[in-house]
Amino acid sequence: MTETSLTIRRPDDWHVHLRDGDRLAMVLGETARVFGRAIVMPNLSPPVTTVKDAAAYRNRIRQSGKGARFVPLMTLYLTDATDPDEVEKGFRGGVIVACKLYPAHATTNSEHGVTDVARIRPVLARMEKVGLPLLVHGEVTDTDVDVFDREAVFIERILAPLVRDFPALRIVFEHVTTKDAVDFVAAQAKTVAATITPHHLMINRNAMFRGGFRPHAYCLPVAKREVHRLALRKAAVSGNPKFFLGTDSAPHAVATKESACGCAGIYNAPVAMSAYATVFEEEGALDRLENFASHFGAEFYGMPVNEDSLMLERAPFTVPERIGDMVPFLAGETLNWRVAGLASPTKGPVL
Ligand code: DOR
Ligand code: ZN
User: Fold this and answer.
1) Which atom of ligand 1 is found nearest the CA of 251?
2) 248 catalytic, yes or no?
3) What share of the chain is helix, strand, coil (3-state, %, to 5)?
4) pLDDT score of 351
5) Which atom of ligand 1 is nearest to the CA of 109?
């Protein structure tokens, strides 16, 4: 029987780029009206490298949210110079919930990232000790490594040794794009988990070259071959708690995407839950969407699930061609599911 509606615990987004200033004001609502909490990436310019920066950024998000029932969860951007005491202070003070490892030059605003993981070993040891998760952008940047192999090579050269050397460190392999990553994560202890984006579940690398170059399908890690997309779909609907929702929604102005050197990033916040629901329905696994979207991430981070519920409706949802100066993921396409609203058990409707 075809479901016509679906009510799940309110989901969380365990990986999102909310930006700052005017763009924060433009994009925050799309995340905050659906997700109860979100792990906010620290790759601002300049990056969020201190507890003070993270607290100030959290305040700007809260102010921009104008009292919305939404909790921004902050992260610190690791550099070669990060001080273990700073990280511990941020964690103990309740300002940060994780630290993010960007290999230097791997992606947008990563030029201050880590040049060699050996340099942050004392920080990783401290994180392991205090129980602070490490979020990883898993790509090597060596110019002799093919761009489509960067994630697989990262596993072999960086991640596997890291998991071995810091066995109690909780690690999230963010926005996995390959079967190699899925297999690796599935084979580790429960300290190692992964987020999966809507776009990597829906497009393969052909999407970037369909009838011409398509900058709005370009993100990092770049989408891979179909065999990898299928492995990601299987992992997402598997019911394995190691795989949970993280949109990696990464908004950029259209002019910076459609350019001689276009920015990496897909703005999917406006369509994220519609897209995930469509994928889970296609896989015959709608009954597993709630675990993936609303339970497994919270479990990994040791947080309670949200009290509110999210209602989804099986109704055509045509994605706008533009939202402000941005082109959202799946612009102009029609999805089978739309967000119908939120309900709160304690305070009545919140949308
Ligand atoms: O495509 C991406 N965009 N990947 C990232 O890792 C960063 C993000 C951004 O900040 O635009
Ligand atoms: Zn990201």
Assistant:
1) 11
2) yes
3) 40, 20, 40
4) 46
5) 10
